[in-house]
Amino acid sequence: MTNAAQFWDRIARSYARRPVQNAEAYRETLDATRAHLSPHDKVLEIGCGTGSTALILAEHVAQITATDISAEMIAIANEKSAPENVRFLQAGAEAKVEGDTPLDAVLAFNTLHILDDPEAVIGRVFQALKPGGVFISKSACLRDMNIFIRVMIRAMQMVGKAPAVSSFTSPELHAMFTRTGFEIVESRTFAGAGKLPFIVARRPA
């Protein structure tokens, strides 16, 4: 088991009890995501946590597979009532989910900045998508944030209260997408979440 998996396993139950920190931004994220999905789509969500977003979006797609590195997060997701077109699997963001490619859409919310090599994962997503498929993400750009926030995160990491993170700016994140072959078709931020760009990137047809 990786250190990341151990961290998320340890906090999974307390994480599941927390309310959404920015409900308005979460609602806007869901609305913007739905606009890029269709009823025939086969979708993968990486870093799904306890599965709430996958369950909300399930009625708008044909099939959604939601994965997380944490077995405990997936156990909590599986405790929820899910429709037949949803399945939850324990897997890291770099894993290939057998039988699910090529995909119409991949989702990664609050995930890229907690990966060791986000650009490598973006590249693997590119290969998993159909031509014309979309990668929809929202990520914290830590290098754009106030230095005191970054110091606080570092202090929390030292006492096991925060996971390892990858630090990048918004322009650096956009460059990761374009270097791996994606075309960025939408990039915006939502209420109270100015350092978490919502990006829709398309694999060219």
Short description:
With 205 residues, the chain is an alpha/beta fold. It has seven helices and seven strands, in the order ααβαβαββαβααββ. A seven-stranded mixed beta sheet has the order 3-2-1-4-5-7-6.
Structural class: alpha/beta
Radius of gyration: 16 Å
Fraction of residues in helices? 25-40%
Overall mean pLDDT stands at 91
Write down the CATH topology: Rossmann fold
- Counted up, domains total 1
Could you name the CATH homologous superfamily? Vaccinia Virus protein VP39
The biggest sheet, with number of strands, parallel, antiparallel or mixed sense and barrel status, is: 7 strands, mixed
Looking across the biggest beta sheet, what order are the strands in? 3-2-1-4-5-7-6
Number of DSSP strands? 7
Query: Low-confidence spans: pLDDT under 50, at least 5 residues?
Result: none
